[in-house]
Specification:
The complex is a heterodimer.
Chain A: H1 4-30, H2 35-39, H3 46-55, H4 62-74, H5 88-123, H6 128-142, H7 145-159, H8 182-188, H9 192-229, H10 232-239, H11 244-281, H12 287-296, H13 300-328
Helix pairs in contact in A: 1-13, 5-6, 5-9, 5-11, 5-13, 6-9, 7-9, 7-11, 8-9, 9-11, 11-12, 11-13, 12-13
Chain B: H1 7-24, H2 26-29, H3 67-103, H4 105-119, H5 123-134, H6 138-165, H7 168-175, H8 180-217, H9 228-237, H10 244-271
Helix pairs in contact in B: 1-3, 1-10, 3-4, 3-6, 3-8, 4-6, 5-6, 6-8, 7-8, 8-9, 8-10, 9-10
The chains are: A mainly alpha, B mainly alpha.
Chain lengths: 334, 279
């Protein structure tokens, strides 16, 4: 039964989602601060407020509100945003693609940088380069993505302005994206000016998210590479006359990748969480940026929709990581 | 016995001591009142710059407030949050971790499941939702850090307690007729303490960043009293005109976080020569 583990994971997803929803729903409603009073003008009467509360169903009991929400959610209706006066599902659908593209770009950068760094450190082991790499990975892991973002804005955006650090596209570029995936769609439609501009704007945000993860991958991969290199088959390959770099790439890497892959998978969810702040920092119109505004404006339906989306994303990533592990490591399939 | 002091421990302890001194004696250390505005001396660059003013070492902001003084006063909320947040998170996490690791069974299963679910939630989003719910202010930030990060302590302490519970000294203490609770508090806890110290220093660094993030979003202390995150937020707004306004608080936060990490890593290796990696 190789895939029963995945089945169990999928079954666990439902109660987890339900739990997250209950907690957020209750927390937001017991909290002080009335969203309706915040959106309505200061001249409103008590009757106005009461009428508006009824429109959003906020006058009913907590359990009744939850029942209504759940009943509608099952049919794909996640309510209307209080501040933006649009359906939550269409708001989320419009913002999610950018967050996904940013996260994917960051993961790609982290993997390439991490694997490259580990290979370099192992390839030159014993040389001063190894000590330098070790010190650098320690330093890079210690600094969180928030500070990397700020440092980039300061140095690359202002002091020696080489990168744009605010927004997604240059202001003179017009591009109506139908799917929301600006990077992917511009490439498919052959709008390379849009692609280049978006890539430049996303470069440092993605790198800020990627740097700590890249350093972690490098550290773990280096450790497992050193372990694998001590095995007999490596010695045999060397005796057969293959060069050290060939052995490293062709023989050792494949067998050492496991722990680093697991780490990358687990950390990927944290990386997605990091987009919330990075999008705010760089003025990117993604889901996280909207989440912060929604919380500050106490836009209850929108917060619920966004939190649910993030929870779904995380569960999806975790299941994906399990599936990849199962494919790569036959011993887990038992 | 003389021991060589680890370089990282020395660096971390020195920086933290400096920040702590600033936090405690802010009124003495700061050259100016952090709230005093002087529009005649607004947006001055640091003293080493071409147009710098000797009386304002790190320059001034757009209202003419002294940056150095604001940084020194900002150390106070940062250190309060670091110590209080890490202590509270540590207490909750350690208690649950000891309990789960030592007694096992359904207690362990439910606590571990809770930790898994907790950690699957994006920390930044959770912090922002929590502070929006419990209100802004220093106490809320401390509470939010404890509520979010107890899981870090819980996971590590649980694993370490399981290791310790299998050791011979636990069996012999039990054979001598001591109760399980007594063994847990008097025998196991002291052996988990070195690890806790490391986790505590690391958590302090995290707490400083969380406080900065919440101030940055505008959900921490009121905007009157200076915080590092508040300074970052102002700096971000005027980064093109006055870049040092962003650079200096970022440097202060980064230095403090690096110090906490260096101290934590150094302590781990000095206290535990076998260097079990953190799970």
């Amino acid at each position: 039964m190789p895939w029963s583990l995945l089945g169990r994971r999928l079954l666990w997803a439902l109660p987890t989602l339900f739990g997250v929803l209950v907690v957020v729903f209750v927390l937001l409603r017991v909290a002080p601060g009335d969203p309706v009073a915040m959106m309505i003008g200061p001249g409103a009467t008590a009757d106005d407020i009461r009428a508006l509360r009824a429109v959003y169903g906020l006058d009913r009991s907590l359990s009744a509100q939850f029942g209504v929400y759940l009943g509608q959610a099952v049919h794909g209706d996640f309510g209307r945003s209080i501040t933006q006066k649009q359906d939550v599902s269409s708001l989320v659908a419009a913002r999610l693609p950018l967050t996904l593209e940013l996260s994917a770009l960051a993961l790609l950068i982290a993997c390439v940088l991490g694997v490259g760094t580990a290979m370099a450190a192992v390839g030159w082991r014993g040389a001063p380069a190894e000590r330098g790499v070790d010190a650098a990975t320690g330093f890079v892991t210690a600094i969180p993505d928030f500070l990397w973002g700020l440092a980039g804005i300061l140095f690359l955006g202002v002091l020696l302005p080489v990168l744009p650090v605010f927004g997604l596209l240059d202001s003179d570029i017009r591009f109506d994206s139908r799917s929301g995936f600006v990077l992917g769609e511009s490439l498919v439609r052959g709008r390379f000016d849009v692609f280049g501009s978006a890539l430049l704007h996303l470069a440092w945000p993605a790198l800020s998210l990627a740097l700590p993860l890249a350093a972690m991958i490098a550290r773990v991969l280096k450790a497992s590479l050193l372990e694998v290199l001590a095995e007999d088959y490596i010695l045999i390959a060397r005796v057969k006359g293959f060069g050290p770099w060939h052995v490293l790439w062709r023989e050792a890497l494949r067998n050492a990748l496991g722990p680093a892959l697991t780490l990358a998978g687990v950390q990927f969810t944290f990386l997605i969480g990091g987009t919330v702040l990075i999008e705010k920092l760089f003025g990117l119109p993604g889901l996280g940026n909207m989440a912060i505004d929604a919380v500050i404006n106490r836009d209850l339906p929108l917060i619920q929709g966004i939190v649910l989306t993030f929870a779904l994303l995380f569960i999806g990533v975790n299941i994906g990581v399990d599936a990849i592990n199962l494919r790569l490591n036959p011993r887990l399939r038992g | 016995m003389r021991q060589r002091i680890d370089g990282r421990v020395a660096f971390g302890a020195a920086v933290l001591a400096l920040v702590l001194l600033c936090a405690v004696f802010a009124g003495v250390v700061a050259p100016h009142d952090p709230l005093e505005q002087d529009l005649m001396a607004a947006s001055l660059p640091p003293a080493w710059g071409a147009e710098g003013d000797r009386t304002h070492l790190f320059g001034t902001d757009s209202l003419g407030r002294d940056i150095l003084s604001r940084l020194v006063w900002g150390a106070r909320p940062a250190m309060i949050v670091a110590f209080a947040g890490a202590t509270l998170a540590g207490c909750i996490g350690t208690l649950l971790g000891l309990w789960a690791g030592f007694f096992g069974g359904w207690v362990d299963a439910s606590i571990s499941r809770l930790v898994d679910i907790w950690m699957s939630f994006p920390a930044v989003l959770l912090a922002i939702v929590l502070v929006a719910v419990i209100g802004t202010g220093l106490t809320s930030v401390v509470l939010a850090i404890a509520i979010i990060d107890w899981t870090r302590f819980c996971r590590v302490v649980r694993a370490e307690t399981q290791v310790q519970a299998g050791r011979d000294y636990v069996t012999s203490a039990r054979t001598l007729g001591q109760t399980r609770t007594h063994v847990l508090w008097r025998e196991v806890l002291p052996n988990v303490l070195p690890l806790l110290l490391t986790l505590f220093t690391l958590e302090m660094g995290i707490a400083v960043v969380v406080e900065a993030i919440l101030s940055f979003v505008g959900l921490s202390v009121s905007s009157d009293s200076p915080t590092w995150g508040g300074l970052v937020q102002e700096g971000r707004l005027y980064v093109n005109q006055t870049p040092w306004l962003l650079g200096l608080p970022v440097a202060a936060i980064a230095l403090t976080v690096l110090a906490c990490n260096a101290l934590g890593d150094g302590l781990r290796e000095s206290l535990d020569p076998l260097q079990r990696p953190l799970p």
